[in-house]
Amino acid sequence: MESASIAAGHAAHDQEHEHHGPPEANVSSRVEAQFLGMLLFIVSELMLFGAFFTAYFFIRVVAESGWFPIDGQDLPVAIAAVNSGILLSSSLTMHWALEGARRGNRRALQVGLLTTFGLGLTFLTIQVNEYVHLGFPISENAQTSVFYGLTGLHGAHVVVGLTLLGMATTRAFRGHYSPEQHRGVEVPGIYWHFVDIMWIFVFSTLYIL
C-alpha cells in the first residue's frame, strides 16, 4: 500500500511538471474563432454601410433638385449594370473554389480563386474608369458626395477582398489547403459574398431607384 501511494504521488508530481504555461482557455462557443470573427466584422461593416445609406435616403427626401440627373449629368447605368454582372459572377467562381477545396480538387480551387480575383480586379478597374469619365467632382453637391462616398466605400471593401483573395490564392498554389483544412478559403469567401451582396444594394439605390 505504501509503495502504491508513493508511486501515485510520483505520478501526480510528474503530471504537475509536465504542464507549462497558463491553463487552456475555456471555449464556450462551438463556432470557430476565425469564422466568428469574420461574422462580427461583417456586422460592424453593415452598421457602417447603414450610416451611408441613411445619408443617401435623407438627401433623396430633402434635396430640392432630387437625385440624378443633375444639370444634365446622369449616372452611367448601363456600364454599372455590366459591372454588376461581372462582380456577381465572381460569387459563383468563389463558391466553385470553395467546393474544390472541400472535395480535394486542387485545380478547381486554384482556377476558381484566380478567376474570382480577376473578376474582382476587373470590376474595380471599371469603377475607377467610371470615376475618371464622370462629369462632376465629389464636392459639387450633396448628391455627388453621397454617390462617391457609397461607391468609394464599397470599392475600398473590394480592395480588402482582393487582398484576402490574393493571400488565399498564393496559399492554394503552395498546397496549403485540404478537404479537412480549408478555413483559409471559406473565411475570405464569406467576406467576398458580403461585398457582392452590398453592391446589389448600392447599385439598386444609386443607379436604379
What do you see in this structure?
The protein has 209 residues and is mainly α. The chain has a single domain, classed as Cytochrome c oxidase, subunit III, four-helix bundle (Four Helix Bundle (Hemerythrin (Met), subunit A)), CATH 1.20.120. It is built from 6 helices and no strands. The radius of gyration is 25 Å and the shape is elongated. 22% of the residues are buried.
Topology:
Layout lengths: L1 H17 L14 H30 L14 H27 L2 H28 L8 H32 L9 H26 L1
Helix pairs in contact: 2-5, 2-6, 3-4, 3-6, 4-5, 5-6
Write out key terms for the chains shown.
209 residues, 6 helices, mainly alpha, 0% strand, Four Helix Bundle (Hemerythrin (Met), subunit A)
Q: Calculate the mean pLDDT score and round it.
A: 87
Number of strands: 0
Count of individual domains: 1
- What's the architecture, going by CATH? Up-down Bundle
CATH C-level name? Mainly Alpha
Terminal residue distance: 86 Å
Structural class, judged by helices and strands? mainly alpha
Q: Considering DSSP H and I runs of 4 or more, what fraction of the residues is helical?
A: over 70%
CATH topology: Four Helix Bundle (Hemerythrin (Met), subunit A)
- Topology pattern, helix = H, strand = E: HHHHHH
Low-confidence stretches: 4-8, 10-17
Which term fits the overall shape? elongated
Radius of gyration, in Å, reads 25 Å
The CATH homologous superfamily is called Cytochrome c oxidase, subunit III, four-helix bundle
Q: Could you tell me the strand content as a percent range?
A: under 5%
Biggest sheet: strands, sense, closure? none
Helix run count = 6
